[in-house]
Here is the input.
Amino acid sequence: MPVIKVENLSKVFGKNVKQSLKMLDSGKSKEEILRHTGDTVGVNRASFEVDAGEIFVIMGLSGSGKSTLIRLINRLIEPTEGHVYVDGEDLATMNKENLRRIRREKLSMVFQKFGLFPFRTILENAEYGLEVQGMDKEEREKKAKASLDLVGLGDYIHQYPEQLSGGMQQRVGLARALANDPEVLLMDEAFSALDPLIRKDMQDELLDLQTKMQKTIIFITHDLDEALRIGDRIALMKDGSIVQIGTPEDILVNPANDYVERFVEDVDRSKVLTAENIMKRPETINIDKHGPRVALERMREVGLSSIYVTDSKRNLKGFVTADDASDARKNEIRDLNEILRTDVPTVTRDKPMQEIFEIIHNTPVPVAVVDEGKLVGIIIRGSVLAALAGEGEVNVNV
Amino acid sequence: MLMFDFIPQIPISEAVQWLTDWITNTFSFIFNPIRNQFGDFMNWVADRLYDIPAIIIILLVAVAAFFVTGKKFGLAVFSLVGLLLIYNQGLWEELMYTFTLVLISSILSVIIGVPIGILMSKSKTAESIILPILDFMQTMPAFVYLIPAVAFFSIGMVPGVFASLIFATPPTVRFTNLGIRQVSTELVEAAEAFGSTGSQRLFKVELPMAKGTIMAGINQTVMLSLSMVVIASMIGAPGLGRQVLSALQRAQIGPGFVAGISIVILAIIIDRFTQNLNKGN
Ligand SMILES: Nc1ncnc2c1ncn2[C@@H]1O[C@H](COP(=O)(O)OP(=O)(O)OP(=O)(O)O)[C@@H](O)[C@H]1O
Ligand SMILES: [Mg+2]
Here is the structure.
C-alpha cells in the first residue's frame, strides 16, 4: 500500500468554486477560469501515489501550484475536492482531532524560509512537535537532541535561530521535522533559500539521512537539477495540473509534451544519464570456441576495428584488435589468448555519462559496461555525443 | 439645507438620555456594589501605597529604572530627582492616588483589551464589528465619557476608571489584533503542521511573536489612561489632576504649574518603564 495516495485533488481559490470546477470539467484553462469567474485554480485534479521510502519530487514553474499541492497533503489548505490518503486514512474528510493526530505522528513539514520560532532556542525549536503532543520535558529534550545530533547541530542547542547561518537554520528545520519520527516529510522548496554550495551539501545530507532513515519524502523544487539529483520520481506541474510523473530518466528522455520538453531542455543531461542509458548491444566472440580467424571475420562483417572477447558465460575477458588478428592469422596462431588485450576500459551500469565522457576520450576502443564481471553492453563515442546533444536513441528501462 | 427643515429634529439626545437612565436604573444592582466595593478597594490600594515611606518608593523606583534600562543611569537619576521634587512640593499623596488610578485602569484595560484583540485577530466578522467601535471610542471627545461614568458610578475614582477604560483600551485591542495578524504565515503554518491545537498555536507561537507589538499598544494605553485620569478629576477623581483643576478654577498659575510638572514627570517615568520592559525581552 502506498504511504500517500492523492486522488483527484483540487483547490480553487475564490468565491465561485462550483462554477470553476464545472469549467475545469469541461477542460477550460486556468486563465479562462480566472477571467470568467475570478477564481484562481491552485491545483487541478492531481492524482499520484508515493511509496514508503521514496523521494517524490514535485516541480514546476512559479505559480504552478506546488506549494498549494503540498499544503493540501497535510491540509494546511482545505481541499476543494478530492482525497488525500495517508496510510489509507482520508485526510480530506477527517475531523480536526484526527487531523491533528496525523500531523503529529505521521507528517512533518520543512519550510522554505525555515519557519523557525525566533524566540525559542534551537533545542526548543526542535522540541516543538513533541511539546504540542504533551510529551514530558525530559523525554522530548532527549529526542530533540538526538535529532539535532543527526543533522550535526549537537553543539548549538542553546543558541537562537538568528545566530545561525541559513544552512544551519534549515538543518534545525529538518531536525524539528525528524524529531517526532514521522513517516512522511513534506519539504516545500526547503533548500531554495540557500546559496548553491550549501544547497548541494544539504542535498547530499538529505540523501545520506534518507539511506539511514528511509522516510517517505515529498520534496518541492523549481530547480530541475535538484529534482534530478534527489528524486526517485518526479512530478511536473503546470497551471495546477500534473503533466508528467516519472523517473528522472523518463522525464528527460521521454518528455510527455512540449512543456516538459522545454523544462528539461536546459538541463545538463550528462549529470543524469548513466551508462546503461546509452550502451549498445555488444558484438563479441567466444574465447572458448573461436580463434583469430573468426574474430577477423566478425569484425569485417560489422565494420569494427576491435571486438570484445568473452567466455561462454559472457564473462568479459578482454578484446582483440583487427590488426593483431590478421597478424595472428598470418602466423598461424590459433589461440586468442595470445593476442588478447586485457587493458579494457570498463564501467558499471550506473556510471554517470559525464565520467564516461572522460574515459572514452582516452581510449581507442569502446567502453565496456560490465555487471558482476559479465559484459552487458558497450558504449561508443558516437552515442555519448548523441545523448549529450539530446538526440539519438537512448535506452530507458534497460 | 433649507429643504430639510420640514423634518422635525430627531430626538437623539432624548434617546441617549433615556437609554442611560434606563441602564442606570435597571443595572443599579450591579453598579452600586461595583461603586462601593471597587471604590473601597482603590482607596485601600492608594492608602497602602501612601503608607510606604516615600523615600523607599523613590529608591525602589530608581533602582528598578537602573535595571530596566539595561544598567544605565539616565532614567534612574531622572526618577530619583523627579520623584523627590514631587515629594518636596507636597504632592506625594496626590501622586499615589494618580498612580493607583493609572495602574488599575491600565491593568483592567489590558485584561479586557488583549482578549478582545485576540478575538478580532481570529475572526474577520469580529474585526469588522469591533474596528468601527474602536474608531468611535477614540474620536469621541474624552470629556463625553465622564457623563455616563457619573450616571453609572456617581463621582470619585470608580467613574474615573470607567471613563479611562473606554478611552484608553482601544490601543491595546488594536495592537493585539495587529500583532497577531502580522505573525508570518510560515510560522503559523509551522505551528499548524506540527499538530498544534488552537490555544497551543496562540500561546506558543502567536502571542510570543506578537509580544512586542502588544507591548507598544499597552504603552499607549497606559499613557492614555494617565491623561484620562487628569480629566477625570472633573468628576471628583482625586490626585494630581485635581490640583490642576482647582488651580485652573482659581486662576492660580503657580500651583497649576507645579501639579502639571508632576504629571509630566510621572508620565515620562511610566512611559520609559513600559518601553524598556518591552525592549528588555
Ligand atoms: N491563498 C491564496 N489565495 C488565492 N490564490 C492563491 C493562494 N495561494 C496560492 N494562490 C494561487 O494559486 C496558484 C498556485 O500557487 P502556489 O503558491 O501553489 O505556486 P507555487 O508553484 O508554489 O509557486 P512558487 O514557485 O512561486 O512558490 C497561483 O496562481 C497563486 O496565485
Ligand atoms: Mg511555492
Residues 308 and 319 of chain A are 4 Å apart (CA to CA). The pocket of adenosine-5'-triphosphate (ligand 1) is lined by residues A 13, 40, 42, 60, 62-68, 222 (CB under 6 Å). The domain at 4-106+182-267 of chain A is CATH 3.40.50.300 (Rossmann fold). The first helix of chain A runs from residue 17 to 25.
